[in-house]
Amino acid sequence: MLDVSDLKKSYHKVEAVKGISFKVSTGEIVIILGPNGAGKSTVIKCIAGLLRYEGDIWINSLKNKTLEAKRILSYIPETPSLYELLTVSEHVDFVAKAYNIKDYENRAEELYERFDLLDKKNKLGKELSKGMQQKVSIICGLITNPKLILFDEPMMGLDPKAIKELKSLFLELRDAGVGIIISTHIIDSIIGLWDKALIMKDGNIIYERSKEELTESDETLEEVFFRATGI
Fold it and tell me: Which one is the CATH code of 2-72+147-229: 3.40.50.2000, 3.40.50.300, 1.10.486.10, 3.40.50.2300?
């Protein structure tokens, strides 16, 4: 599904990502953990094609910046960026039509209901709280039926019910064969949700294990995180 090989990214003379490689399989949830400044968001933005980088990134054997790859990729950023003068439903309609998605209306209604936005569909982007904006951003990311989804700190600003629904969606998407990357520094938010964990520090992947491998080591993810990062 996703193959990242020798990914490097520098900002002027600062190396933010230092030649990392990893893979995400079909129907696999991979979490990227690390302290602030570890390079997590930079990796996500490189995969999404938002930054220039060195190395290779393939999505379903397609270069990530090709139109074909972008059609099967969704990116939900940490900070939502909505159009101030579009309503909630207009945002979703715009994205669905831009991707030429047919018969999406029922799916949209289901997502509005799950995220308590049914009565907010006609509100403008500028009228929404940060949490509501995040919900709209998530729905826009899901309405295109992606095969790979990148979530950057997806729980930020969400209320408890929305967090519960999002966690359920993670598992539903995985069962449907969608590859998922979740970047976060809040370990508690993804307990029980992941198949493979990557821990980053100073632009490097310093730990990579499957859930089965971690279970066999008789350590918790939190224990490994603090030992590996030295925090």
Answer: 3.40.50.300
